[in-house]
Structures are given as structure tokens and as C-alpha cells.
Design goal:
about 190 residues; four-stranded antiparallel β-sheet; 7 helices; 9 strands; about 35% helix
């Protein structure tokens, strides 16, 4: 199972090679980036406004992934955006739904706002990428902002400074790009 996930992650990463290879040219995007010491796990844990997503990653058992050697980009909804969903998905009975929502906010690779903006410019339009849950998100430029849309119609904007860690990037969002699946009916 782990080997299949590794192969799938490597294949997905190959799809994003043009983005990760983009140069760090001049950007008009208001989203800025700051390098932080340590891994994604420590960057998320130390970031103000990302407490709910940090706690949710730990509860879902995904926090350890961000301490490992793999490179990921986390689309991190801020506390105001994620708190209601994150709190509603607490508890063992909701763990699968929480994991599904979080995996829909994780991309393989090291994607900075500058690389995303360049890919949008190179394509002359929106860029679609596959998340770790095999869903899709679409990045688009709206003026100086970069928006992210989920397959279910959810839309958020990169909101604040991206955090560049040793093994990936945290892109703070003002909303969710994947909503929780409906609760099973009994």
C-alpha cells in the first residue's frame, strides 16, 4: 500500500515538474513568501492563524507526514475559515471525513506563489493540479490575487505570507477548497 502511494505521489509530482522548475522571477502577486527553519510540521505548528488546521492534521494522523523527507504544499485554511469544519470533524467517528478534507488541501511538491503565478502566465490561464485525494484544484489569477477552486465549486484566495520550509510550502487560504463529505445516513 505504501509503495502504491509512493508511486502515485511520484507520478503526481511529475505532472507538476513545470511548476517546481519555474524560476523565482519578479512577481506582481501580493502573496509573499518567508523561509522558516524546520519542516512543514513545525512551520504549521508555529504559524499564527493556522492552529485549527495544525490540530486537525495531528488528529488525523497526517502531521507526521510533514516531518518526513517528502515535499508537499499545504493549502492551509486559516482559523476563521477552517475552525467550524475542523471542529465539526473531531472525534474518531469523523476521522475518515477529516482525512478526506485535509488530503484535498495537500499537493505533492514545493509550490510557491511565484511558481504558481508563472505557471498561470505561461499557460495564459488557470492551472489545474491533482491533490493527494486524487481530487483537483484550479489556480487562477484575479488581479494581484491567486485563487484556488475545488471541484465542488469551493473557492479560496491565498491570503497572507506563504511559509517555505525545508520540505515544502504552506499557502494560507481564506477558505476551504474541499468541503467535508456528507454524513452517512442511517
Amino acid at each position: 500500500m505504501i509503495q502504491i502511494k509512493s508511486i502515485a505521489a511520484a507520478a503526481a509530482l511529475a505532472l507538476f515538474a513545470p511548476l517546481t522548475a519555474c524560476s523565482q522571477g519578479e512577481s506582481t502577486n501580493e502573496a509573499t513568501a518567508a523561509e522558516v527553519d524546520g519542516t512543514l510540521a513545525s512551520a504549521i505548528g508555529d504559524a499564527p492563524g493556522l492552529t485549527t488546521v495544525s490540530d486537525s492534521l495531528s488528529e488525523a494522523g497526517l502531521g507526521e507526514v510533514f516531518d518526513g523527507p517528502g515535499s508537499y504544499t499545504l493549502l492551509a485554511p486559516g482559523d476563521d475559515a477552517f475552525a467550524p469544519a475542523g471542529e465539526a470533524l473531531t472525534g474518531e467517528e469523523n476521522r475518515a471525513a477529516l482525512v478526506a478534507v485535509l488530503r484535498g488541501h495537500i499537493l505533492p511538491g514545493h509550490l510557491t506563489p511565484e511558481a504558481i503565478r508563472k505557471a498561470i502566465a505561461d499557460k495564459n490561464g488557470p492551472v489545474t493540479m491533482t491533490t493527494l485525494d486524487d481530487g483537483e484544484v484550479t489556480f487562477a489569477a484575479e488581479g494581484d490575487a491567486i485563487t484556488v477552486s475545488g471541484a465542488d465549486g469551493s473557492k479560496a484566495t491565498i491570503d497572507g505570507e506563504a511559509l517555505i520550509a525545508s520540505n515544502g510550502v504552506v499557502l494560507p487560504l481564506d477558505g476551504l477548497v474541499k468541503k467535508a463529505p456528507p454524513a452517512p445516513t442511517t
